[in-house]
Amino acid sequence: MAKQTHVPLLxxxxxxxxxxxVTLSKISEATGLGKASLYHYFPGGKxxxxxxxxxxxxxxxEQIISDALSCKGDALTRLQTMGDRINQAYNGGHxxxxxxxxxxxxxxxxxxxxxxxxxxxWIKAIATILIEAGMAxxxxxxxxxxxxxxxxxxxxLAQGLNNPSPFQRVIQQLPSQLCQGL
Amino acid sequence: MAKQTHVPLLxxxxxxxxxxxVTLSKISEATGLGKASLYHYFPGGKxxxxxxxxxxxxxxxEQIISDALSCKGDALTRLQTMGDRINQAYNGGHxxxxxxxxxxxxxxxxxxxxxxxxxxxWIKAIATILIEAGMAxxxxxxxxxxxxxxxxxxxxLAQGLNNPSPFQRVIQQLPSQLCQGL
DNA sequence: TTCACTGTACCGTTCGTTCGGTATAATTGT
DNA sequence: ACAATTATACCGAACGAACGGTACAGTGAA
Lengths: 182, 182
Prior knowledge:
Two copies of one chain form a homodimer. By secondary structure, chain A is an all-alpha fold. Chain A is about 75% helix and about 0% strand. Chain A has nine helices and no strands. Chain A has helices spanning about 5-20, 25-30, 35-40, 45-70, 75-90, 100, 105-130, 135-160, 165-180. In chain A, helix 1 crosses helix 4 (about 45-70), helix 4 (about 45-70) runs parallel beside helix 7 (about 105-130) and helix 8 (about 135-160) packs antiparallel against helix 9. The first copy, chain A, starts with 6 loop residues before the first helix and ends with a helix. The mean pLDDT of chain A is about 95. The first copy, chain A, binds a DNA duplex through helix 3.
């Protein structure tokens, strides 16, 4: 079985339990691999596993952005496309965000930079869509932040309330809110 | 030294590192108490420490709500008052949220109910302010959710970007956004 | 034969927790 | 008033369990 096969499992573990909450036993159980096998695929241990998951996440985000930008239509349509993909990635709000999980605990110091770059990339992508539709740069950047904030916050609320409906409402309303004033 | 003396320290630890990331050694170092002494104040161990912090947080939130509701003025003024207190509680966006931290890892199963009640109380308080100002109930409840979502999301972003400015902007803009349509 | 892969046994460290105890302050019985 | 008792605050040392990680001898397919 290839290394990449286990990445989705690792993603689910780290986003649910955070870096400090994920133990090698849990990983071993979830993947069905013994510790020796895990260290065969990830010689760098836990850190390399997170690293791998982050790379996959970067690619996933890049794909979502590419889908949205290549989408024929106005800004609203593009943002709706992005919303669809995001909704899918978070399983309709049932799954928390890895970026939030990695901003806590011992992980923060180690992965801060990567998380930062990912968030900035995401914000920039939303801003780009709005700028291309004619919005002023500064406002578009703020809207980009607002978009990521709404999604992250909605995920927190969905987790905390154990109820995905706030996330679904946000995902649905967000595109038109971001386009406000265009 | 009384038990309550250590609660702010514990709050800071748990919100920064999460339940799984906080070790008794860290707590011992932060409080200056030996591990054995910690069990004098908190016989229930780590869980009782979180419990105590959560009780303090409930009281803090209740105080903020009471301040906002007892504030003479329109809904905007009341929400601004709440924003001020919230801003203070999160140290201008420099400190993350305990509720988000406790929604991850092994803590989730244990403290889910308490976190849920706290979030619902917060949402309800915002909604109440808006309803008293004449907003329709359903919309007001949505706005309550939106308010908490914006704050939680902004805190995540502030942590992830290592930059509190998005949080400060959100806190500043939020009251008028929530009053939109009144 | 080679090499990716795995099971088993281990390493040192740290985890949350408990035990047995000390020093001091407060309370009580006489 | 004073001694006996009890409560409070604290700590060093140790517990078994689990931690992240390593060493190594297989195993089985190409």
